[in-house]
């Protein structure tokens, strides 16, 4: 119930205005978001890389409403990738892109615009010597996102895709994307989805995650295990071992600000540990999804609201 309400609020302009104007929000947002400016992102990235972690940077934004804004987002990624190249961080840092931020939802030729903008970002990443992963949004975008990914992979075979374990279709998608060289991030899924397309309870989602992970670990691709769940992390390690995988043939991924000690433990044990690092002014949707995932974060937020009256 609470999760559903928060996920619905993540798409409400009215709630957005209230939350964004509330001063304590910003202190809590800082835990999950590097800052609003490019320099903030580069500094946070540098700090993470210095502690043996890798990074994937997300220029925050989603549901872009016009072509100009979509092109502006692509340009922001180009500037980011130039900065990563110039600071020598590109070896340890890639970027994550939401296709809705580069035009996917625009009427008429949204998919074409998103493809062109994503291509610009991939070219800038290739020039910087790093990679791109396409984030996955709600289930209405899955076919479109995977079809854009297939098209881009013809020129950029290192392009990463995200599959969400809660979707009933994902085990089959894993079979397709477990091919040689294919970078696949497996996450549980962060959106409010109907029962017809997605498993609902934690136990069912966890079981689906393990089934999907089995397919990816047994395949020839490069699985990216995106979860903070201690059980999933343990099972991923076991599956990698059973499939004779070396430590450089898969990686763990976690979000910035969540379980940082575990991130360091995994990195220090010789694993590749990548942190998803968001930055930018458009933090609202991302922040609300993080609150929806963990009641403790919400309690902290509400307590701050009550204290401020
Ligand atoms: C690198 C990365 C990229 C992602 N990309 C996408 C994407 O493209 N599309 C998409 O739909 N989703 C994405 N997600 C989000 C993902 O789908 C889940 O919503 C999120 O990771 C929570 O699921 P979990 O696997 O951590 O397990 P959960 O079952 O939610 O949590 C397990 C445990 O992890 C800890 N934990 C989890 N969340 C939090 C939190 N917010 N604060 C503090 N502790 C927490 C707690 O200890 C909790 O008990 C991504 C997640 C990661 C890590």
Q: What's the short version?
A:
52% of the residues lie in helices and 13% in strands.
Give a structural overview:
With 309 residues, the chain is an alpha/beta fold. It contains 13 helices and 8 strands. The protein has an 8-stranded parallel barrel with strand order 1-2-3-4-5-6-7-8, surrounded by 8 helices. Helix 1 packs antiparallel against helix 12 and helix 8 (170-177) runs parallel beside helix 9. It is globular. It starts with a helix and ends with a helix. Flavin-adenine dinucleotide binds next to strand 4, strand 7 and helix 12.
Task: Report the β-strand fraction as a percent range.
Answer: 5-15%
Major β-sheet strand ordering: 1-2-3-4-5-6-7-8
Name the ligand types. flavin-adenine dinucleotide
Mean pLDDT, nearest integer? 92
Question: Could you tell me how far the N terminus lies from the C terminus, measured between alpha carbons in angstroms?
Answer: 25 Å
Radius of gyration, CA atoms, in whole angstroms? 18 Å
Largest sheet: 8 strands, parallel, barrel
Query: What is the helical fraction, as a range of percent?
Result: 40-55%
Shape: globular
Structural class: alpha/beta
Low-confidence stretches: none
H/E element order: HHHHEHEHEHEHEHEHEHEHH
Number of strands: 8
């Amino acid at each position: 119930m609470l999760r559903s309400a928060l996920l619905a609020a993540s798409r409400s302009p009215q709630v957005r205005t209230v939350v964004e104007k509330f001063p304590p929000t910003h202190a809590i947002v800082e835990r999950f978001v590097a800052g609003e400016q490019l320099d903030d992102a580069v500094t946070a990235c540098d700090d993470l890389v210095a502690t043996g972690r890798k990074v994937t940077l997300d220029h925050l934004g989603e549901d872009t409403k016009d072509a100009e804004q979509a092109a502006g987002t692509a340009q922001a990624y180009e500037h980011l990738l130039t900065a990563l190249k110039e600071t020598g961080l590109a070896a340890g840092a890639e970027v994550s892109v939401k296709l809705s931020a580069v035009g996917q939802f625009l009427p008429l030729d949204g998919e074409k615009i998103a493809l062109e903008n994503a291509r610009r970002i991939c070219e800038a990443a290739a020039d910087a010597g790093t990679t791109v992963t396409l984030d996955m949004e709600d289930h209405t975008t899955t076919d479109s996102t995977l079809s854009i990914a297939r098209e881009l992979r013809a020129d950029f075979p290192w392009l990463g895709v995200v599959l969400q374990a809660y979707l009933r279709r994902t085990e089959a998608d894993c079979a397709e994307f477990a091919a040689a060289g294919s970078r696949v991030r497996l996450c549980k899924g962060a959106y409010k989805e109907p029962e017809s397309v997605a498993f609902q309870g934690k136990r069912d989602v966890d079981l689906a995650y393990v089934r999907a992970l089995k397919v990816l670990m047994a395949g020839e691709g490069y699985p990216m295990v995106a979860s903070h769940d201690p059980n999933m992390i343990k099972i991923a390690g076991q599956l990698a071992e059973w499939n004779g995988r070396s430590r450089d043939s898969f990686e763990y991924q976690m979000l910035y600000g969540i379980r940082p000690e575990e991130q360091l433990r995994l990195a220090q044990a010789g694993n590749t540990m990548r942190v998803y690092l968001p930055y930018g002014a458009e933090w609202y949707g991302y922040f609300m999804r993080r609150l929806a995932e963990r009641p403790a974060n919400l309690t902290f937020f509400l307590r701050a609201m009550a204290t401020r009256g």
